[in-house]
Structure formats: structure tokens, C-alpha cells
Amino acid sequence: MGFMKTPKVEKDPELAKQREVEKQRLAAEQAELEGNRLDRNRKIASNLLGSKSLQDEDMQGFTGFRRKNMGGNDYA
Asked: Potential cystine with 48: which of 43, 57, 60, 69 (Cβ 3.0-4.6 Å)?
């Protein structure tokens, strides 16, 4: 049945351009997200961000916790 061939559809050049632009946009977005992740990891590692941070604005007036002894001593 060689007489029933599927006609070839010409590729739309505008559609190809749109796909290329979308690929570039996604690549730029991925690069930005990766940069943000690396920057956040750098800040956490250098102790500038997170629960262990020693930044002055977060620690204003903080003197630390006082530990109580188990013997009921209230002076510690």
C-alpha cells in the first residue's frame, strides 16, 4: 500500500524561534536559581545566615542562657 503516504508538513520557522527563546529563558532561569542556591550556601557556611548567625543586629542585647544546676541551686 505504497500509494497512501503521509504528506510531509513543513516546519514553521516562527515556532522554532519561539522554542529557542523559551529554551534560553529556561536556561537563564536555571542559572539564576543555581546562583542563588550557591550564594545561600556560602552565607550559611560563613555563618552570615541561619540559626547559628552571630550578626550584631540579631544578637543585640543577648547575653546567653544561664544553666541551672540539678541540685536546686538558684545562684547559678
From this structure: 43
- The per-residue DSSP string of 27-57 comes to HHHHHHHHHHHHHHHHHHHTTSSSTT---TT
Number of domains in the chain: 1
DSSP state of 7: P
Q: How far is CA 44 from the centre of its chain?
A: 13
User: Which residues lie closer than 8 Å to 76 by C-beta, 6 or more apart?
Assistant: 66, 67, 68, 69
Model pTM score: 0.48
Does the residue 70 lie in any domain? no
Is residue 28 situated within a structural domain?
Answer: yes
Tell me how crowded residue 49 is: count the other CB atoms within 10 A of its CB: 15
At 72 the pLDDT is 59
